[in-house]
Amino acid sequence: MAPALAFAVVAAISGCQSKNGASEVLDPAAIAAPASQAGANTAAPAQLTASSAATAPKGNLTLGTGSTKIAMLLPLSAPGSAGENGRKMYDAARLAMADLGDKLVTLTIEDTRGDSRYAKDLAVKAITSGGVKIVIGPAELAAAQHLAKLSGTQRPPVLALADNFAGGPGVYAVRLSEADSAAAGAAAVASKGAKKFVLLVPAGANAGAVEARVANALSIYGATLAVTLPYSASDAAKVVSDMGSLVEAPDAVVVASGDGSPVAVLSALKAKGIPGKAVSLIGTERWLERPIDPLYEGAYIATLDQSETGPIADRFKATYNYQPDVNVAYAYDMVALSAGIASSVGPNGFSKQVLENASGFRGSTGLFRFRADGSSQRSMPFFKVEKGRLKLVEKQTAGF
User: Fold this and answer.
1) What Rg, from alpha-carbon coordinates, does the chain have?
2) pLDDT by residue (tens digit) across 53-65?
3) Complete domains list, the chain, with CATH
């Protein structure tokens, strides 16, 4: 029998929690097969023998025979990296289904083609069909944002796989966001005694979300966000100059970058001696979407370890003959979470109470939890940029 790597839901339901209260994702004993399935053959299905990463899978994309129906929307045939990532997530879903026993759920995977409009239509169809208990995906940002605006409390929850998605009621953001990274980084520095923080954040719709998350994370450690300064690429130097007149002797400066480069802000900060002995500089995971610039030197960044997929890594590599990445980990964890709820609670267990369990869940991407507003919070490694590389400072930190 393949190892059963799964989520034990909340303690009241499953009785399986870690010392810090988080429900264990990768506990081999977390999911027990129903009595009717005892002794059933749960070996990996035949289609696990080949990787799907190179080309879009064809034919039957329904896995499992369980009574709980799950829809998964992936950009399998999308061009470029979007399609490659979609196919990696498909392989992850297949592995999760094999690990968990495919008689627990029926997982139907549909190809969004990387088309936001088509992804939206597929998602709306899934949540209004009446049979699906939870939807994993879509990975297209515009489609996820559309779902978050829809009204209705009886629809199934959605675990959206889109990058930089803020979430919405019942539409949960799975991936690490800049707000997560900024909050966790600020919390890690605050835990060492820093009390007064400044946040520099790109002006725009996401500024408020980043500010709220950072302020909340700091409050846990008795630290405060002294001021938040929105900036644009053209006025970075002026904003940094204004910071000096607004805040006296901050202990740390957090710099969010959004879709742009942080270099203009970092250059202005460096001219003022930041980072330095008295003032720490905290970046975010979005800095790392670009090559590490010399101006990153000395900054602290909380981000997922892209090469660390925990207990699933070796088996994934052996099964598909390529190294798993964070896309694999996200997809595996969401299928595992869904199957875990189906096993522990039943087909009707996909409630806000279960999904928004305050203690969170621990999976191959670390500790995470979903909030009522649809955002997610994650623990992650904490790094310092030294000589152009990320040097591990702490294995886990969290902004909650």
Assistant:
1) 21
2) 667 787 559 999 9
3) 11-176+308-364 (3.40.50.2300), 178-303+381-398 (3.40.50.2300)
